[in-house]
Structures are given as C-alpha cells and as structure tokens.
Design a protein that fits this description.
- By secondary structure, the protein is of the alpha+beta class.
- It has two domains: 48 residues; 71 residues, Gyrase A, domain 2, CATH 3.30.1360.
- Helices cover 50% and strands 24% of the residues.
- Strands 1-2-4-3 form a four-stranded antiparallel β-sheet, covered by helices on one side.
- The model has no long low-confidence stretch (mean pLDDT 91).
C-alpha cells in the first residue's frame, strides 16, 4: 500500500516531468516565434531597400555594346512577334554569365538562350530571344 511519503514523491516526480515537458514546449514555441519574426523583419528590410531599375528596350546599339564588352562579335538582330532574336559569335564561356547579368540588370528578359561551341575552343555562338 502506498504511504503518504511515497504519494508525495510520486506527485513530485509527476510534477517535475510535466514541468519539463511544458517548459520544453514553451522554448520550442518561443524559438519558432523568433524565427518567424526574423523572417518578417528580413522581408520588411528587403521591401524597404528595394530599388526598381528602369527597364531599357533592347536596341541594336545597346546589344552591340554589351556583346563587345564581353569580347564577342554582334552578328544580327531582328524583331519578331515573340521578341528580339539576337545572334552573336565568339563569346567565351566565362563571359556568358556576365552578358546575361548585364542584360537582366537593364530589365531585359531572356526568353530563350542557346550557346553552341562547335570549335571546342570555348568560343560560343549565342542565339537569344529577348523581350
């Protein structure tokens, strides 16, 4: 039979277990709340500091200068119903990301992109459809 002392010990043990469970749950909820709060603050910071760049139209002069900056040769440009089809030659593989970045930085959207190296020297023939 359970004595008064063993009942007190049992209740104390049960209290300690429940206290640990609830305290652990409290810390988990608090951590989750802080993570969500920090995500919210990050989004608010990014929205506050967002700078919208003016979009430039892809003109022949602009494309010639951008392609020549990366060391390529401008070949042709024609306007179609899907956008501007641009072809360039002899663009090195290392400068293709620079070309894409400079186009997207000016607000020009690249719909299709194809780069082919038939020589094996790392100089690509590039075909793009821009908007």
């Amino acid at each position: 039979m359970l004595t008064k002392r063993s009942l007190n010990t049992l209740f104390l043990l049960l209290f300690c277990i429940l206290f640990y469970v609830f305290l652990n749950r409290y810390y988990q909820l608090r951590d989750a709340y802080y993570k969500e709060y920090l995500k919210h603050k990050e989004v608010m910071f990014l929205m506050k500091n967002y700078k919208q760049n003016k979009r430039q139209e892809p003109s022949e002069d602009l494309l010639k200068s951008l392609i020549s900056q990366v060391g390529g040769e401008f070949f042709s440009m024609r306007q179609t119903d899907t956008g501007y089809e641009v072809k360039a030659r002899k663009i090195s593989g290392a400068s293709i990301p620079k070309l894409v970045y400079s186009l997207e930085e000016r607000g020009i959207k690249i719909d299709k992109f194809k780069a082919v190296d038939n020589t094996g020297q790392g100089l690509f023939d590039v075909e793009m459809v821009l908007r």
